[in-house]
Amino acid sequence: MSSSPADAFFTRATSWHDELAQLRAIALAAGLDETLKWGKPCYTRDGANIVLLQPFKDYCAMLFFKGVLLKDTKGLLVAPGENSQSSRQARFASAAEVKKATTALKAYVGEAIAIERAGLKVELKTIEAHARPAELDAEFTRAPALRRAFEALTPGRQRAYLLHFAGARQAATRTSRILKCAPQILAGKGLND
User: Fold this and answer.
1) Where are the domain boundaries for CATH 3.30.1460 in the chain?
2) H-type helices in 68-170, by residue range?
C-alpha cells in the first residue's frame, strides 16, 4: 500500500484500532481515495466526499455524507445528531460487529459512489424553514447592521447560529448567546470559525 495522509492517524489510533482498520479496508477496496479531512480519514471519489471514519468514546463509525439517500436495507444507519439532514452513520462497538456488517457496508459504499456519480443532491431545509428566535429578530430591529451581516453569511453559517440560539430554553440565555455572537457575525465569521 502506498503512503497516505491518513497513515499517521491509524498509527496513532489507540481506541477502535481493529474496527477502524476493517472499515478502512472496506473503503479502500471500493477504490476510494484516502485523505485526512477534519482530522479524520476521509474517502473520496473524483474529489467528492463519500465516507468518513470517526472514533468516539463509546463506538466508532463510518459516516456516509449523503447517507439519507441510501436505501439502508439492513437498518445500519442512524443520524449523527438531531439536526443532521444529509449524513448517516453506521456505528460499531466491536470488530465482530464490523465483520458481521462487512457485506452490507460494501454494498452501502457502492451505492454511495453511484449516488455521487449520478449527481444526486440532498434536499436540505432552507434557512427560512429553521426557527428564528424572537430575540434575534428584536436584535435585528435594534441593530440593522447585524441583520445585514447575518444575511450575508453562508446558509450553513446562518443555520449553525440559528440552531445555537434556538437551542437555549430561556429567553435570557438566547439573548445572551446572540449578544455574545454578534461581533463574530459582524466580522462575517461562522459560529465555529
Assistant:
1) 7-117
2) 95-117, 134-142, 144-152, 155-166
Q: Give me the helix-helix angle, 134-142 and 171-186, nearest 10°.
A: 50
User: What is the rounded distance in angstroms from the CA atom of residue 184 to the CA atom of residue 178?
Assistant: 10
- Distance separating alpha carbons of residues 145 and 100, to the nearest angstrom: 55
* Residues 86, 66 contacting (CB under 8 angstroms): yes
Alpha helices in the chain (DSSP H): 7-12, 17-29, 95-117, 134-142, 144-152, 155-166, 171-186
Overall pTM surpassing 0.90 (yes/no) = no
Query: Residue 33 in 3-state DSSP?
Result: strand
The predicted-structure confidence for 42-70, as pLDDT tens digits, reads as follows 999 999 999 999 999 999 999 999 999 99
| CATH no., domain 7-117 | 3.30.1460
Identity of the residue numbered 189: K
Numbers of helices and strands, H then E, in the chain: 7, 6
Which residues, 6+ apart, have CB-to-CB distance to 73 below 8 Å?
104, 107
Location of C-alpha cell 457496508:
105
Predicted confidence (pLDDT) per residue in 125-169, tens digit:
777 777 789 999 999 999 999 999 999 999 889 988 998 998 889
Given this model, what pLDDT does residue 5 score? 79
